[in-house]
Amino acid sequence: MSDSPKVLILMGSVSDADLMRTCWQQLAEFGVESEVRVASAHRTPDLVAELVGGAAARGVGVIIAGAGWAAHLAGAVAANTTLPVIAVPLATSSLQGLDALLSSVQMPAGVPVASTSPGRSVNAAILAAQILALSDEALSARIADLRASQAEKIRNLTVDQT
């Protein structure tokens, strides 16, 4: 096992995997290990508490929680840890993620949860990597490379003026 902190990615349902896949893929591109689990705030609250409660001891530095509909997973996670928690509201209901976004960001004082916009699991991965990069210069350099690559793609864009 690596000495570098890893990221715990929780999803409320196995059906969320397709929406969350870019999260663990981006972390892998950065060389950040992730642990991906399904645990529901409503159906398996004891499992959520168990996974989150032991996360730091397993080397986790950041937790990402992806859920749709009521999206209480990130809040349940934050209530059980002092590790940084990032919510990924998922557009799984007829409200296209607005319900999940509001559930994710309306946390009481003292129990913060960071949040991406609905469906942006890749941004959750990048934010988690940025948090871990505060104490990892090599990871910080990999993030800087990604940003440079993104900027280069834009610099090379042209617009057809016909």
Structural description of this entry:
This protein has 162 residues and is an alpha/beta fold. The protein has one domain: Rossmann fold (3-Layer(aba) Sandwich), CATH 3.40.50. Helices cover 43% and strands 17% of the residues. It has six helices and five strands, in the order βαβαβαβαβαα. It has helices at residues 17-30, 45-53, 73-78, 98-105, 121-133, 137-155, and strands at residues 6-11, 34-38, 60-68, 85-90, 114-115. A five-stranded parallel β-sheet has the order 2-1-3-4-5. The mean pLDDT is 93.
Residue stretches low in confidence (pLDDT < 50, at least 5 long) are none
Question: By helix and strand content, what is the structural category?
Answer: alpha/beta
* Amount of beta strand: 15-25%
Series of secondary-structure elements, N-terminal to C-terminal: EHEHEHEHEHH
Percent helix range: 40-55%
Task: Tell me the Rg in angstroms.
Answer: 16 Å
End-to-end separation: 56 Å
Provide the residue-averaged pLDDT: 93
Q: Quaternary status of these chains?
A: single chain
Named CATH topology: Rossmann fold
